[in-house]
Specification:
269 residues; mainly alpha; Hypothetical protein af1432; 14 helices
Length: 269
């Protein structure tokens, strides 16, 4: 695929914004850009699920692996990561480990804030895809588990179940099934049984709208050239995110190992 370099740089916020990005973040941004371009060029011609499965043995990596552990740029190498503080906070992870996904979740949270959503939902939007640094498969469930000890119950609930709801339209809520998923999974893709079961459960759940609002703010948070700073969310993080005094990964919580894995992803064992 040919890449329009000027358009790509503009989509990231201009040359100045690109200079501030790590090499890993640029690689992830390029992959996301190429995916969007593929959607456009495909002109509504989507692969079948069998076509997607046939691609597995053409790669040297699995698509479900976390962003910290690989680069998908051809012939590229992973880069040395910045060291983390001795007692890292969520904000430290957002700055030093979550890479290009940070701009997406900041856009998502910004959209939620501008449309007057609750602080629990704004925080859920800020957190919902950050676990991609660790793992992509079942990321809603992994993410909810990783954050549950530190955030309100509604926030972790919204993170957990946005994964299921993203496969089901709710036009009244402003969510349509995206062409991106038709390209990623195949136009005839049928969600896994646990996704189907969770969707049925959520339809009658009192908190249905919590994860649904995350899907709405997730899908429309890939605006080219839009750069959102962390500043508007500092107070919400301070009120709702309970950073352990020992630092994330050092607090002996049931999920501390998940945070440590992101702190030291180059450890072999």
């Amino acid at each position: 695929m040919e890449i329009d370099r000027r358009h790509f740089i503009a989509a990231l916020g201009g040359a100045a914004a690109v200079k501030l990005m790590s090499h890993e973040a640029r690689a992830e941004a390029l992959e996301a850009y190429m995916m969007q371009e593929l959607n456009t060029q495909a002109a509504k011609k989507f692969p079948k699920a069998a076509d997607i499965e046939a691609q597995i043995e053409t790669r040297s990596y699995r698509r479900g692996v976390g962003n910290l552990f690989l680069t998908t740029q051809a012939n590229a190498k992973v880069k040395k990561l910045d060291p983390m503080p001795r007692k890292p906070t969520f904000i430290d992870f957002l700055r030093y480990r979550f890479g290009q996904i940070s701009n997406h979740v900041l856009q998502s949270a910004n959209r939620a804030m501008k449309t007057g959503m609750t602080e629990e939902i704004i925080l859920a939007c800020l957190l919902h895809d950050t676990v991609h640094a660790l793992i992509k498969t079942d990321h809603g469930y992994w993410g909810a588990q990783m954050y549950a000890p530190y955030v309100p119950e509604k926030t972790s609930f919204a993170i957990r179940y946005h994964q299921a709801l993203r496969f089901y339209e709710d036009k009244k809520a402003g969510y349509e099934y995206p062409d991106l998923y038709r390209n990623l999974f195949g136009e005839d893709y049928v969600p896994a049984p646990h996704i189907q079961a969770d969707y049925k459960m959520l339809l009658n759940h009192k908190w249905y709208m919590e994860p649904r609002l995350v899907t709405v703010n997730d899908l429309y948070a890939f605006e080219p050239g839009v750069v959102v700073t962390l500043d508007p969310f500092i107070d919400i993080i301070g009120r709702l995110f309970k950073d352990p005094k020992e630092g994330l990964g050092n607090d002996n919580s049931p999920v501390a190992h998940m945070w440590r894995t992101m702190i030291i992803p180059d450890n072999p064992l």
